[in-house]
Amino acid sequence: MWQRHLAAALFATLAMTGQMSAAHADQLADIKARGTLVCGTQNASEPYAFPDAATRKIVGFDVDVCNALAKGLGVKLEHRALSTDARIPELKTRRVDVLAAAVAWMPARAAQVDFSDQYFVAPIRVLVRADSPVQTLEQLSGKKIAASEGSSSAAVSVTRLPDSNLLTFHDISSAFLALQQGKVEGLVAGQLILARFANEAAAKGGQQYRLLTRPVFEERWGVVMNKGEPALRDAVNRILVDYDKSNGLQESFEKWLGSKSVYKFTRDYKVEPIKVQ
After folding, report:
1. Which CATH architecture has domain 123-217?
2. Which residues make Cβ contacts (< 8 Å) with residue 218, sequence separation at least 6?
3. pTM above 0.85?
4. What is the pLDDT of residues 99-124, one digit of tens each?
5. Greatest Cα-to-Cα distance within the chain, rounded to the nearest angstrom
6. Residues linked to residue 26 through DSSP beta bridges, in sequence order
7. What region holds the Solute-binding protein family 3/N-terminal domain (predicted)?
């Protein structure tokens, strides 16, 4: 009797394994058969994905991309809000199908997961005091600059501003404090957080700040998916191109980052394959 039970258990295990293999053979087919796209974003990264104060629902630029993907695939959206650290693990264990979660292309990431065409370009720039004589990146040569410890901005500064004296701080607020106190000439970070610092300073009066015009580097964000899913990657790329052509991407940009937002950024990129810089 026990032999029959063992054989049945082995058969069930093999059958389950076979089903799982088949299920992962083509994730696009799985999504369409299921009728749902599980799309992950960050859970607290305004304006990309953050809780709306009135509804408590997660909204933002990346959430709009998730909606566009589900609509383009003709399925319902199951949105999953994730912590920053959980993004790639949740994808790798297939608890989410794709990520539109502020994931910038980097060689180490590209070795683990596939990226779609870019849907957002995030500049890394330098904030200086408004009365600083520094007008260009070249004029930072020999001067102290600040960045958050372990950030991509700090890593980029080493290679893109090699003649500057980089000082890293425990967090971005401490780095900004160093700029406020005149301990450094510039603060290197993502354009969005720097714009927030400048806007908040303007609202309070006192010392004012400005961004140098030319970016130090441009991070390129794509929709992220597991490797070995060419059909899903191609479908996502087609949807992103259509999303751009229909003006949907531009409207979302204007709402969260552009003329209708507090940031007033201008979109000067398009959906296209990510170019390695």
Report:
1. 3-Layer(aba) Sandwich (3.40)
2. 121, 122, 123, 124, 277
3. no
4. 999 999 988 899 999 999 999 999 99
5. 87
6. none
7. 36-260
